[in-house]
């Protein structure tokens, strides 16, 4: 019997349970007996909510079982504001964040139990400030237009939450607590920043700033999250712009390495070569030089990190998608990985918005540090 057939049989058994038991399990999956142990080297894939809904997650679990991948980053709250499953968090229920295609509790339980059995580390991704659902429900928590106090809208016509409001961070903390209790071994917060829009400075107002630089605000809010997660005994991770490894300003979004690094256990710079501008690192087309971009980004990150006695782990996001020339295939992925290994950064997570990955770029198993550092892409 294949793995997919075994899982199908398991789900059939779960759905065939007595109706009382089934309705009870749909309220929330049971709490695991212990917190999953984080691997020393983490190599992961991003899993969007649709991959969990349509069953493709089982294919990704198979990929992790047969390759060097040992972690999956699963959207618990995405950048539209929707929560993956029916939630016990009051605010999520109040605004309907868990009402659009929630994944059944028995499927979440089957996924997490299968990952645990196969030693695949489960990471919960929770988006914070980019939450148009909550911003529409609580316009007083949204970034406001200076002209009339109405919600400021980004280029896609969507409102953003104002990172000054403690309530939005408390909401993220509540969702993180729930995810940890379900069995996720690490909480990864994304969009821990202000919008990256040049119009913001002239169009928006922030009445709670009280003269504080944005980097200080993010520092303080991350400190609040860290205090809330401490009792959970799970690592706290944050996604940050790739350029934070090199740029010494906060780039207007509130992310400056020296301000956020001490507030997290793991920092994940999004070092996608396609996102670096012409001339960056002396490269006319950074996208065409994945090794050189990651090499420089990781060198700079390690220098910045070395200033702290309690420095976070560095786990870069690598690009597994094509945006411009050249197309990104196995050689481009391996070039990014190799640049990390050559800088003693052995962990990574691959990003593909559709959760479709270049499997032939993956090796069967994690090698030793010495073997990886001497092997070229």
Helix content: 25-40%
Cα-atom radius of gyration: 21 Å
The stretches of 5 or more residues where confidence is low (pLDDT under 50) are 1-27
- Number of structural domains: 1
In the CATH hierarchy, the architecture is Alpha-Beta Barrel
Q: What is the H level of CATH, i.e. the homologous superfamily?
A: Glycosidases
- Count the helices. How many? 14
Would you list the SSEs in sequence order as H and E?
HHEHHEHHEHEHEHEHEHEHEEHEH
Largest sheet: 9 strands, parallel
Strand content: 5-15%
Total strand segments: 11
What form results from the Cα inertia axes? globular
The CATH class name reads: Alpha Beta
CATH topology: TIM Barrel
* N-C termini distance: 36 Å
What can you see in these coordinates?
It is a single chain. The two termini are 36 Å apart. Helix 8 packs parallel to helix 10. The chain has a nine-stranded parallel β-sheet. Strands 4-6 form a two-stranded antiparallel sheet. With 377 residues, the protein is of the alpha/beta class. The N terminus is likely disordered. It has a single domain, classed as Alpha-Beta Barrel (TIM Barrel).
Give me the secondary-structure topology.
Layout (H helix, E strand, L loop, with lengths): L2 H13 L3 H9 L15 E5 L1 H5 L3 H10 L4 E7 L12 H5 L10 H13 L3 E7 L4 H6 L6 E2 L20 H17 L3 E5 L9 H4 E2 L8 H16 L6 E6 L15 H4 L5 E5 L19 H16 L7 E2 L2 E3 L10 H13 L5 E4 L17 H6 L3
């Amino acid at each position: 019997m294949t793995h997919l057939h075994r899982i199908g049989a398991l789900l059939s058994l779960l759905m065939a349970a007595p109706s009382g038991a089934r309705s009870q399990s749909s309220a929330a999956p049971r709490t695991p007996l212990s917190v999953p142990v984080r691997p020393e080297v983490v190599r992961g894939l991003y899993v969007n909510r649709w991959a969990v809904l349509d069953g493709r997650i089982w294919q990704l679990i198979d990929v992790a079982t047969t390759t060097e991948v040992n972690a999956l980053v699963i959207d618990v709250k995405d950048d539209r504001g929707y929560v993956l499953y029916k939630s016990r968090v009051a605010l999520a229920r109040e605004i309907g964040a868990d009402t659009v295609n929630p994944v059944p509790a028995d499927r979440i339980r089957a996924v997490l139990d299968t990952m645990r059995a196969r030693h695949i580390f489960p990471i919960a991704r929770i988006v914070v400030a980019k939450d148009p659902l909550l911003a529409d429900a609580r316009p007083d928590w949204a970034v406001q237009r200076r002209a009339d106090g109405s919600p400021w809208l980004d280029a896609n016509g969507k409102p953003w939450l104002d990172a000054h409001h403690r309530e939005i961070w408390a909401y993220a903390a509540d969702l993180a607590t729930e995810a940890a209790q379900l069995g996720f071994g690490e909480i990864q917060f994304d969009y821990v920043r202000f919008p990256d829009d040049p119009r913001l400075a002239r169009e928006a107002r922030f009445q709670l700033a009280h003269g504080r630089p944005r980097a200080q605000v993010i520092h303080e809010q991350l400190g609040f999250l860290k205090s809330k997660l401490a009792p959970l005994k799970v690592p706290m991770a944050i996604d940050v712009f790739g350029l934070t490894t090199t740029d010494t300003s906060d780039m207007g979004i509130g992310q400056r390495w020296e301000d956020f690094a001490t507030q997290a256990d793991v920092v994940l710079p999004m070092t996608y070569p396609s996102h670096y501008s012409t001339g960056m690192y002396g490269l006319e087309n950074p996208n065409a030089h994945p090794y050189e971009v990651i090499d420089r980004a990781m060198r700079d990150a390690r220098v910045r990190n070395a200033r702290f006695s309690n420095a976070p782990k560095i786990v870069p996001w690598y690009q597994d998608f094509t945006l411009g020339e050249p197309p990104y295939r196995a050689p481009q992925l391996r070039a990014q990985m190799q640049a990390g290994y050559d800088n003693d950064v052995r962990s990574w997570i691959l990003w593909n918005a559709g959760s479709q990955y270049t499997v032939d770029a993956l090796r069967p198993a994690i090698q030793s540090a010495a073997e990886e550092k001497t092997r070229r892409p």
